[in-house]
Amino acid sequence: MDLNGAEETAHLKAEDSTMQETLSNPLRDDAFFKSDALKIERIAEKFRDIIEILGLDLSDDSLQDTPHRVAKMYVNEIFKGLNPKNKPEITVFKNSYNYHEPLLELNIPFTSFCEHHFVPIQGKASIAYIPSDYVIGLSKIHRLVNYLSQRPQVQERLTQQIAFELESVVMTPDVGVVLNASHSCISCRGVEHLGTTTRTSAFRGQFKNNSSLKLLLQ
What we know:
Elements: H1 3-22, H2 36-53, H3 66-78, E1 92-94, E2 103-114, E3 120-129, E4 134-136, H4 138-149, E5 152-153, H5 155-170, E6 175-183, H6 184-187, E7 198-203, H7 206-209, H8 211-215
Helix pairs in contact: 2-3, 4-5
């Protein structure tokens, strides 16, 4: 590799590192010092306090195990995407059939949680990329969406995280992501408006300035 090529590669790696840091969820440095078992134990203790402060009777058989159930749900299910150990292992394959047209995976259901109020964000993701040298198994796109959704999120960040990860995995700059979702922080509190949809998008490479490609995801 000549000097210019080496400099360009270094520049792209630096850009990727900066982008990854910008799109990271706001985690503390000690976020994974505690084991999952200890986190469940501590969250259960804290949630028990919340229930008691609300005035509910924890001796009732419907409520007595709720603190532990909530703690397990937080750590093992709805927020498990916070921990990098749960990132799906994604295998790519050589694009041996030379397919270089847009590949779309539409209406992927996802559930995330608003980091402002800790209530659900639910919707569907539509994702496209134009393969270069590699392709990815379709189910792996779904797993990637699940992993990035399973954490306290804002929809704008989630959209960009999906685009960045897909671009990194399949090694193509030509990626498009559109998310349509309903936010419980709008429907069940505040203005209490049901039926609204929030749409966000991230377009990279050929998708960025090509309206015809963008329309594929609408």
